[in-house]
Amino acid sequence: MPEIAALVALAAEGDQDAWNALVDRFNNLVWAVARAFRLSSADAADVVQTTWLRLVEQLDRVREPERLGAWLATTARREALHLIRRSGRQLPTGDIEMFDGVNATDPEPDARLVVDERDKMLWRCVDGLTHRCHVLLRILMADPAPSYEEVSAALDLPVGSIGPTRARCLERLRTLVVRAGISADAEGL
Amino acid sequence: MTHDDDLPAELKALADRLDPEPEWLRGAAKALYTWRTVDAELAELTWDSLTDEAALTGVRGTAAPRLLTFQGAGVTLDLQIEDTRSGRRLLGQLAAQGPAQLEIRHRDGTDGVALDELGRFVVEHLPGGPVSFRTRLTTRTGDSVVVDTAWELV
Q1: Distance in angstroms (rounded) separating the CA atoms of residues A101 and A95
Q2: Do B124 and B62 reside in the same domain of the chain?
Q3: Which of A53, A119, A166 has its CB closest to that of B18?
């Protein structure tokens, strides 16, 4: 994505509009990474802002500006893990096969939003996946859709394993959805 | 390279409806650009008890204060963060090659920090969110140097 590298160069020269364009392009990805690690909304916002401040101070030093999305995803993952460790919460292990229902520490969908039951059930099913699957699917929900390189950076997994992991996680999700009985058309997922 | 077909449409739309970014966040991220300073040197985080000690001992503890060290451009800043009943308190010491002034930068602005004769300082009621310290240093040759620590969520 050469246009990203060009925006980084412009932002390094002092162009606020270029900076704004970078934020518009990647803020949702950074938010998705923070939330994928099940941070509260306030903690996730801290991680997002810290990640952008890191870029502010590193604008002249970004080695591969065309890969900025991956750099931001990596930074956000590290900040999220630091914050989890600081708060003394258990780091997700990634080898738990299935959480039993919704974990009490999971951020619940914002209660003020009017969402239909199917949305909420589907969200709980995503929450009920293994840590790795939850992180992967939440990051893939970022808008615009992240590249595999960005997903790989957010998960600290090789790019080549993203596709197979994604397929496996979607399969598990379909199983949960069917078990929850919320959809006759889980096939459509 | 994007993979638009990677997630079923229903799933993609789910985060938009159930977990959108807070409305203020994007504007705040754009405003962070005003923290950019082209003439400042960077002091990097070189020690963090949170990650470095945990890696050494395998122990995950939060009772002990967090210790951080930033180094760069002739400045060393040691920080200790403690939880107190009235909030979080930061104790620190600045070692610089020359007379120096210190400021703490946080999301609500910048505050001067008083140093004692040994370069020690206290910040009571540490603000939330990321912080960075700015050292204004006068070198032996009389030059003014600005050294900022990397932003850190402490």
Answers
A1: 16
A2: yes
A3: A119
- What ipTM is given for this predicted complex? 0.87
- Per-residue pLDDT for chain B (154 aa), expressed as one digit of tens each? 444 345 788 888 889 889 999 999 999 999 999 999 888 999 999 999 988 876 666 555 556 889 999 999 999 999 999 988 888 999 999 999 889 999 999 988 999 999 999 999 999 999 999 999 999 999 888 899 999 999 999 8
Q: Does one domain contain both B48 and B28?
A: no
The answer to whether A32 contacts B15, with C-beta atoms less than 8 Å apart, is yes
DSSP, residue by residue, chain B? ---TTSS-HHHHHHHHHHSPPPHHHHHHHHHGGGG--TT-EEEEEEEEIIIIIHHHH----SSSPEEEEEEETTEEEEEEEEEETTEEEEEEEEEESS-EEEEEEETTEEEEE---TTSEEEESSPPSSEEEEEEEEE-TTS-EEEEEEPPEE-
Q: Is the pTM of this model over 0.90?
A: no
Distance from CA of B134 to the nearest CA of A (A): 13
Q: Does A166 touch chain B (CB under 8 A)?
A: yes
- Give backbone dihedrals phi and psi of B80, rounded to 5 degrees, phi first: -135, 125
With CA atoms as reference, the chain B residue closest to A166 would be B6
* Unique residue bearing structure tokens 């504007």: B27
Nearest one of A58, A54, A44, A62 to B151, comparing CA atoms: A54
Is the CB of A21 inside 8 Å of chain B's CB atoms?
no
- Count how many domains chain B has: 2
Option in A23, A143, A146 nearest B30 (CB): A23
Looking at the fold, whether B31 and B45 belong to one and the same domain comes out as: no
